[in-house]
């Protein structure tokens, strides 16, 4: 399959290079994600259904690996069911043993997907949950780009209890050969439209937006520690860029309400670094 | 055989006669008496001296052969102890920590480097709240 692709690539004139590169990504993958049907919003605690139409263009491998990238707060390990129907057989999928390593790199699947695929447009707070087909089916030897095995993967998952905006991701691979280093037998897809979970009080946590500013450098602290709050106007597009003096306006929330200190005095003036 | 071993031991003892000068083995208490100001502060090995007014801290250590009393002014700056009391070393000659006792409470801080008797600086390390956060104060004699 690879040889054929390279020949096609060499024959192409220089003009349509960008198109050819795009096609190459599709050609060298044994899996094509044809279509993802995913809701764009959900209510807290709701079960959503996602379907993924897939084409398999190679007969190597028989046991499907599926990865689902979801917010950690959803606890997708506990609340997700995956199954597929295809032109060569149907199966449920089960959570892969976290200690199971792929035959190629001898590392757990989730760890490798995190390293090689990442979390898409989410700034963090995500995890990859990996499933393995309960039944194996070998595609016929005639399987090719022109005669692919087709199928649909169905994911049912319960969204979490808080307002969140997140980009969901999907990974396909196969367990017999493992996660090949050239990615030739795997593929992944992040749904462009971020899904918004609504229904709880308060602002949503927007994982698709910029990561929150880290105000305090310490990982852990308590009331006795000296907390140093840092602010760099250049990290954002605020009116404070170029300001000579910046004052801290703070609100402390406690059991009997809140206390605000929002004054322009030397006590609240932030020191320049 | 027993006789032979006995004679060898006796012989070697005879040869190792070493004259020790008077007072050579006497251990001296590390002298840190005086008033000390904080000149440099690290928090988890990051220099934070310039982001807070640590000049507010003034520590006076008193000694009479051994540690006796101390006084402390902290202002709003963090320090493990905030009122005067007694202090002591864990070891008079080779201390690795010093202990402050004030209002029936004991606070132990470690020397970040072995203190040198009569020197003009010493440094201590301690945690205030979370154990994860280590403060190192460099004191200089006023």
Structure, described:
The complex is a heterodimer of chains A (273) and B (142). With 273 residues, chain A is mainly β. Chain A has helices at 2-11, 17-27, 76-79, 109-116; strands at 31-37, 41-43, 47-56, 64-71, 80-86, 91-95, 126-133, 149-158, 164-166, 169-174, 187-190, 195-198, 205-206, 250-254, 257-261. Chain A folds into two domains: 31-198, ntegrin, alpha v. Chain A, domain 3 (Immunoglobulin-like, Sandwich), CATH 2.60.40; 213-273, no CATH class. Helix content of chain A is 12%, strand content 32%. By secondary structure, chain B is mostly beta strands. Chain B has an eight-stranded antiparallel barrel with strand order 1-3-4-5-6-7-8-9. Classes of the chains: A mainly beta (273), B mainly beta (142). The A-B interface holds A 217-226, 228, 271, 273 and B 43-44, 46, 48, 50-52, 78, 128-130, 132-133, 135.
Write out key terms for the chains shown.
heterodimer, A: 273 residues, mainly beta, Immunoglobulin-like, 2 domains, 9-stranded antiparallel beta sheet, 4-stranded mixed beta sheet, 4 helices, 15 strands, 12% helix, elongated, disordered N terminus, B: 142 residues, Lipocalin, 8-stranded antiparallel barrel, 1 helix, 9 strands
